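S.,

Sequence below, as promised.
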Amino acid sequence: MSRTLYQRASSAQCRAARWVLERKRLACAVVEVDAAAAALLLRRHGGADVPLLEEDGSAVAGLVPIVSYLERTHGPPSVFPADAQKRNQAATLAEFAERAIGPVAERLRGAERDRETPLRELRVLLGQVREAIARRALDSGACHLGDLAVAAWLVACRELPELEFDREYADLAAYVARVRAALRGR
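The prediction came back faster than expected:
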């Protein structure tokens, strides 16, 4: 079976897609998308959005579509808990990472001026991640999609110098390390 993930290493969505593949124990080639790879994807699939997973001639782009495809076509382990309520919670936390943390972190990364507003917003969101960990919605040991998506965005947040992430958010850095260890240990 031929499986290739096209990605940009700095992208949190691509990082989460790699981690989902790792969680499901699915080997794949990883191709960093440069201008030539983007042109190839555009010719082959009509778009160059990443992450993009090619498998035996089929292509799926975007974290959520990739997860849906892998859950549908490959067996255990699942990236969703068996319990319906926890499964919904995992999907909600992944969406929170994509639609809340992601845009604010990207806005802060690209801002040359008025960095204070997105920085304040991001600190509030990181506080909400701490609350989710305290409630065991995250970091329950299940290593579900919510954990993977949130941890992937926390890695991106770690690169923002104003956060002093390893000092001010040492608990969240430790959470990311636990998620990574759970992936390696399964």
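Helices lie at 12-23, 35-45, 63-73, 84-110, 116-134, 145-158, 165-168, 170-185.

Coffee later?
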